[in-house]
Amino acid sequence: MTFLHRQSFFVALLLALVIYIVPLASAAESKCAGESQFSCPNCGGISVSDCMDCDGYLFTDYNYGLCYNRKLFNTNAENGNSDNHYPFLWTDIVGTIVWFLTAGIATACGVGGGGIYVPMGILLLRFPPKPSSGLSQASIFGASLGGILVNIRKRHPDEHIRDTKGTPSEEHPGKMIAYEKGKGPMEIEDDREKYLDGGDGKRKFYTRPVIDYNMALFLAPMEMAGAVLGVIIQRVFPNWLFLCFAAVVLGFTAFKTFKKFFVAYAKDKAAKEERIELTKRESQRVLESQKKKESDANGEGAASDAVDDVEGNANTKEEKEEEDDPKQLEQRRKFLEEDSRQYPFEKISYLILLWIGLTIITFLKGGKGVDSVIGITCQDAGFYVLVAAQFLWTLGFAAVFGYKNVKGVNERVAVNYPFNETDVMWDFKKLQFYSFFTFVAGIVAGLIGIGGGMVLGPLMIVMGVNPRVSTATTATMILLTSSSVAVMFVMSGLVPWQYAVYFFFVCLLGAYIGKTRIDAYVKKTGMGSILVGILATIIALATIGCIIILFLNLAKVDWCVDGFKAFCTVSSEENACPTRLLSLSAEEIFPY
What we know:
The protein has 592 residues and is an all-alpha fold. It is 64% helix and 2% strand. The chain has 17 helices and 4 strands. It has helices spanning 3-28, 89-108, 114-123, 129-151, 185-197, 213-234, 239-294, 300-322, 326-339, 345-365, 381-413, 428-448, 453-462, 467-492, 497-525, 529-556, 586-589, and strands at 38-40, 46-48, 59-61, 66-68. It has a two-stranded antiparallel sheet. A two-stranded antiparallel ribbon has the order 3-4. α4 packs across α14 (467-492), α6 packs parallel to α10 and α7 runs antiparallel to α16. The longest helix has 56 residues, at 239-294. The chain is elongated and about 100 Å long.
């Protein structure tokens, strides 16, 4: 089945699912009409059907029928008091440990961890779904920032890239076979010394940053565009439906990632055994060489010298065959120097520009529970103009840098650039493939409220990208998407400030320490497949979390499924309660 056929099948499957579910959900809309009422202390005391409408008191107590305010590490308890309700000391302490460990492990695998934070926020911290999603975004922002502090200083796993053409790979056209392949440690060192001593005297080793900025500049805007569409779909989807969708998508992703893990683990294990065998053979050759030196009788030394002369002539012949066009060599070195920059400021500036542009448009439009800063609503034409602007900005960015990536690869191929076996050889077919699945990953991220890394990370690994490169690149993209959303959640009052700021720093520290330790272990052992296995486990746990939350939520409403929501609902000013967030004092926000 070709890629286009698979695309058509996927779209047809989604359409069939929508056609089947829409009548069921629509019929269910009237079935779940009865709603509970909760006491809200705002505006002198009002009743609300959902405590998310009670600004500053977002948490629901079903036993007392009231909305209450949540305080970090609260030790005093007065049941029935909306401002001092329930002790959460031990819940928050356990949450701190879980968030710290999750941040380190998830960031090392190139995912935000939202698939863990959201379910654990609901199950462990007892947050409602939307505040839990907001806390998750703040946590992802902290974890991704901690990860970027580590990744931005890291180098590519291949630290000995040469300016020679190398041996072309039959399995991967356009790429070269690694010089280290099939050689032991001593042979590798000898070969590297010969490389530096040969040529025109200008030879040196090159490397690159572990973050693939070219990939990020193309994939990040595609993911953001998908997330915009995901948020739009989320406006009309009932909770049970998008939890079902999340469980199916994440479950399938976990299955595919586990399959890739077992293949990658077998390869890593075989490579490790091969290195051990090569080391043994090298040691044996060294011993044999020492024995030959000790025995100079019977003309053995002369024979050995004759063999060395033959080998030397062969090597000279080999070196002559490796000579190439000086102009190509000069251009190749320019490309290698350009790619080896640890901080390519123009590329980093483009990523920042992408983030600033989308953030400005998002704040103008509003969303994720935040009102527009210019006062427009979904009833205004300006709202839909700004939605279109979001798509034009992100898709336009992706189109420009997709074209630049293809052009850059073609220019390098023309001068026999030494592409690594795990590099992405951009062409228009690969642009189509990556753009489609990255866009889908963004839709899933916007719809479910998780980082797109849970879908995008496995995709990169399946496509053969080095695990350390894929995790660093997806972590960079997650920082762009999570930071603006986290700020919007906190500014809207949908997540308590104390919790957002506290767990931001917990995850930043956890990600920095955890990623440093895990990366060091992977580099030492060479077992990059471990990252794939941990990633698959995280996605599987997220799938289980979605299923648990789905059944718990349905049980609370006596297994009644509600229908689709209206896309555009605007509260009338006479019924609206003024926001409490901006009137809070510093002591109320940070009482400790």
